[in-house]
Each structure stands twice: as structure tokens, then as C-alpha cells.
Design goal:
By secondary structure, the chain is α+β, with helices and mostly antiparallel strands. The protein contains five helices and four strands, in the order ααααββαββ.
């Protein structure tokens, strides 16, 4: 071994030793120091995030309250005031609301017939066949108010014909089929 080392020039031996040292240093850096440094940076970012969450905890409760309010408003726009009614009171509530809205808009309800509809995704469809008499614009206002008061309501069918009972006012006889939806539990 000494004979082979004596063959090398001292300068070449120094270069080989320096390269060996650089190779060992690069290996240590790649496999020992760099993964630890990356883990440290990751933990430091997590720590900073948690610290900012602690300092912003006052806003967190306010944000949660805002979200709860938004959810309640969306639930009301979807279901109206009938969201928490038991199934047995559901139809009578809708009939009462229809009558109240009809009086408000000067429309005479001549008949309301509720019937069960289909199950659409998670929602139970409840169909109402409504016969009414009134002026075109009053009926239009009634349908707009129904949508506002009852939440998500779909007009499935609508037929209009002139009412022959009163000749001077030209009211319309309208038959509307509306569908209201209630989440099935």
C-alpha cells in the first residue's frame, strides 16, 4: 500500500483527499443536514400559523357567528318559515300562507288541493293544485309573494282562461300547480 501511495505525487494525493472530503461533506449535507433543515422550516411555518391563529382567535368567534347566520338565511331562503314544522302541520301552514297572500293581493282562492309528489334527491316534493280568480297583475304579484314567503317553490303548470261570471272586470280563472320541497329526514 505504501508503494502505491509513494507512486502518487503529493499534489495529486492532496487533491484526492480534498475531493474525498468534499464528497463526504456533500453526503452529510444531503442525507443529514438538509432533511433536518426542511423539517425545521416546516415546523417553523406550522408554529407561525398557530401563533397567528391564537392572535386572531377574537375574529374566529365572529366569523363562526357570521357563518351560522348565513346558514340560517340560506335555510330560510330554501325552506321559508316551514323548515322546522312537523310533517302534519306542513300542508296546513302552506294553505294558510297561500290564503294570507291571496287576501293581500286581492285574489280569490277557489280551491287548493294538496297531494304528494316524488322524492327528488333528498327532498320530498309536495304539490298543490290551486284554483284562483283575479286580475292578471294581482295573480302575478301573488305568485311572486308565494315564492318569497315559502322559499323554494316551483310553478309546474299554469292555465289561464277568462272568467265568464263577471263580464265588466275581465278577471281570469287561473289553475296553478306549484311544488314545494321539504328535506326528507
Amino acid at each position: 500500500m505504501r508503494a502505491q501511495l509513494a507512486q502518487f505525487d503529493r499534489r495529486n494525493l492532496k487533491i484526492i483527499l480534498v475531493l474525498l472530503f468534499v464528497l463526504i461533506a456533500a453526503g452529510l449535507h444531503t442525507y443529514l443536514f438538509w432533511p433536518q433543515f426542511k423539517e425545521f422550516r416546516k415546523l417553523n411555518r406550522s408554529h407561525q400559523l398557530l401563533q397567528s391563529a391564537v392572535t386572531n382567535s377574537n375574529n374566529l368567534q365572529q366569523d363562526l357567528d357570521n357563518r351560522v347566520t348565513q346558514i340560517q338565511e340560506l335555510k330560510k331562503s330554501l325552506h321559508g318559515d316551514m323548515a322546522n314544522l312537523p310533517q302534519k302541520q306542513f300542508e296546513s301552514y302552506i294553505v294558510g300562507q297561500l290564503q294570507r297572500i291571496a287576501w293581500k293581493n286581492s285574489v280569490e282562492l277557489t280551491g287548493i288541493k294538496p297531494k304528494k309528489g316524488e322524492l327528488v334527491d333528498q327532498f320530498r316534493e309536495i304539490i298543490f293544485d290551486i284554483d284562483m280568480r283575479g286580475d292578471y297583475y294581482h295573480i302575478f304579484d301573488l305568485l311572486t309573494d308565494v315564492a318569497d314567503a315559502l322559499g323554494f317553490v316551483v310553478v309546474k303548470r299554469c292555465t289561464m282562461r277568462p272568467d265568464s261570471v263577471i263580464k265588466d272586470e275581465q278577471p281570469l280563472m287561473v289553475t296553478v300547480t306549484i311544488a314545494s320541497y321539504r328535506m326528507e329526514t
